[in-house]
Amino acid sequence: QVQLVESGGGLVQAGGSLRLSCAPSGRTFSSYDMGWFRQAPGKERERVASITRSGGITYGVESVKGRFTISRDNAKNTVSLQMNRLKPEDTAVYYCAARTARGGVYDCWGQGTQVTVSS
Questions:
Q1: Which of 24, 59, 77, 84 is deepest in the core (most CB within 10 A)?
Q2: How far apart are CA 12 and CA 75, in angstroms?
Q3: CA 108 → CA 26, 37, 105, distances in Å?
Q4: pLDDT digits (tens, 9 = 90+) for 44-73
């Protein structure tokens, strides 16, 4: 079972930046598709960005395009989400997730890290 640990959340003023990191355990990290999701109070969880095992990137939220960047470093076993020009509406719990089976669902989740953007 893959263990995912997120870090890097916190409180930031609007316009600021944060970098989230996720460190999956497991020797086959490079074979997983990885994603970042978020859930704001009273809202459904949404996919923010994902990166495939081969490095293909998609962003699921239109409003983060141009501000957020997902990346992975297979040598360091890390996937990151760089968030710039943060807005109050980016406030949410952010989750790292792994899709361990090709074509399957995201089946491993971290505990989440809180991101709060003040206006």
A1: 24
A2: 30
A3: 12, 12, 9
A4: 999 999 999 999 999 999 999 999 999 999
